[in-house]
Specification:
By secondary structure, the chain is α/β, with parallel strands linked by helices. It has one domain: Rossmann fold. The chain has helices at residues 103-122, 137-148, 194-206, 224-239, and strands at residues 2-9, 13-19, 23-28, 36-41, 66-71, 75-78, 84-87, 130-135, 155-159, 181-186, 211-216. The strands form two sheets. The chain has a nine-stranded mixed sheet, sandwiched between helices. A two-stranded antiparallel ribbon has the order 6-7. The model has no long low-confidence stretch (mean pLDDT 92).
Length: 240
């Protein structure tokens, strides 16, 4: 394990970066005890380092010192990419509402994220102070897991993603019926079709979930206006 100081965050707060075998962890430095948590899942083929660089732009509210966890997905062959082995939360056969899905892989990654949430809870951060976030395939797992977690979460963040296994939405836990969900998507996304994300949003809203929906003139990426919206949303859900 390597420990190194990360860049300043917000009010001059310094974070310590821990490189672990299965994740990257940013802890508030200077002896500060974390009082919130963000578990952020990367997209297909990336790893836990992918979103670390945006942390300095996430202006957490005063008094909110989160631990930010960026886990690495397992390496596996991915059908949609000609069977190439890469980090993936589950196998993908195609991206359409009717495409068959790797249910076993999705549920295995659900179990992995549940372990990460439980670890934060065991270290003194209650579920109501934890956000599950993710980009693309990671955002799909964030939605799948966040809806099913048995205790109320602070929020669920889905970036350029969709709701997997949408026919099993009845498994959603009552505790997270009213949990704030932010879904962001690029209007010109050539990877995850806009209509797939929109159908996911409609399904969630029809089930009574509190979904904030934002779109941006971008492709399958993250933009500065989107980061600003993510920051504002995180401040809101971690201040309440």
């Amino acid at each position: 394990m390597r420990v190194a100081e990360a860049t300043e965050l917000g009010d001059g707060m310094t974070y310590l970066r821990r490189e672990l075998e299965d994740r990257v962890v940013l802890d508030p430095g200077s002896g500060v005890v974390p009082n919130a948590g963000v578990i952020w899942l990367h997209g297909l083929g990336a790893d836990g380092h992918d979103f670390v660089p945006i942390v300095p732009q996430l202006r957490f509210p005063r008094g909110c010192e989160p631990r930010i966890v960026f886990p690495h997905a397992p390496v596996r062959p991915v059908t949609i990419n000609n069977g190439m082995r890469m980090r993936a939360w589950y196998d993908i056969y195609g991206l359409s509402a009717e495409e068959r899905e790797d249910e076993a892989g999705i549920r295995a990654s659900f179990a992995l994220v549940e372990q990460l949430v439980r670890r934060e809870e065991q270290e003194g951060i209650p579920a109501r102070r934890i956000v599950i976030a993710g980009f693309s395939q990671g955002g799909a797992i964030a939605l799948h897991t966040g809806l099913r977690h048995s205790q109320r979460l602070a929020g669920i963040l889905s970036l350029s993603a969709w709701l997997p296994l949408h026919r099993t939405i009845g498994e959603s836990a009552p505790a997270n019926q009213g949990t704030s969900i932010l879904m962001c998507h690029g209007l010109y996304d050539p990877v995850v079709p806009m209509q797939l994300a929109e159908l996911s949003r409609q399904l969630l809203v029809a089930r009574g979930h509190a979904v904030e929906w934002k779109t941006y003139p971008m492709q399958h990426e993250v933009s500065q206006p989107e980061i600003a919206d993510i920051s504002a949303w995180l401040c809101q859900v971690l201040s309440s």
